[in-house]
Amino acid sequence: MKKLTLTTSILLLVGIGTIAQPVSYLPNQNSITESIHIQKQTKMKNATILHKANEFVKKGDYESFLAYCTQDTKWVFVGERILDGRDKVRDYMKEFYLEPPVFTVENTIEDGSYVTVTGEITLKAANGTYNHYDYCDVWRFENGKIAELKAFVIEKNLDK
Known about the structure:
By secondary structure, the protein is an alpha+beta fold.
């Protein structure tokens, strides 16, 4: 029997990508044996990074969350305020996250350096009441860190 060796590089759309190494097909009497060696890249996707960072927010560990942000991160809360830099984001968290926010993620969409997330968030106000919001966040990443946020946040009217 002849040995047939097929050597090719294939880009698979799994994670950031994996590259397949040589593939050998060795015919025998009953079957074909296949040997595939795959070298995986271990770089984390931006959506995974964001969800990992947000676990720290849920625990009230804001400094660990901020480590996932670039020093010059920019957060735009549409129609409300703009925060320039990690220190301004820290100040915002101290002011508005009197206790860790409770949030749910409904959808996550990743496209290149952007991650869009929709969901609901509940924040405790200074007077002790809880305010409920729907949100749509568009996050931009640079080198695996949060560089920018554009947040669309709408307060829910639970009386209706």
